Automatic annotation (TrEMBL):
Organism: Streptomyces tsukubensis
Function: Ferredoxins are iron-sulfur proteins that transfer electrons in a wide variety of metabolic reactions.
Keyword Iron: yes
Keywords associated with the record: 3Fe-4S, Electron transport, Iron, Iron-sulfur, Metal-binding, Transport
Name of this chain's protein: Ferredoxin
Pfam families noted in UniProt: Fer4_19
Ranges in coiled-coil conformation: none
An MF annotation (GO) of this entry: 3 iron, 4 sulfur cluster binding
Required cofactor names: [3Fe-4S] cluster
Domain annotation Divergent 4Fe-4S mono-cluster: ranges: 1-63
Length: 68
């Protein structure tokens, strides 16, 4: 899993940081900061939820292809 965020479209709602605090934070301006671009297994469900909750679509969560 790879997590990224587009700070140019972030509106500072903070749902990402509230939902997945091990993966996301907010800077002093309230904009998203990715703490862990490749979350640990236990943090992945929260990261996925945060991606779905982001009102501006700034948070992106992508599954990496499995290795054969």
């Amino acid at each position: 899993m790879r997590v990224s965020a587009d700070r140019d479209v972030c509106v500072g709602a903070g749902l990402c940081a509230l939902t997945a605090p091990a993966v996301f934070d907010q800077d002093d301006d309230g904009l998203v900061t990715v703490l862990t671009p490749a979350p640990e297994e236990q943090d992945r469900p929260a990261a996925l939820e945060a991606g779905g909750l982001c009102p501006s679509g700034a948070v992106r969560v992508a599954e990496e292809p499995s290795e054969p």
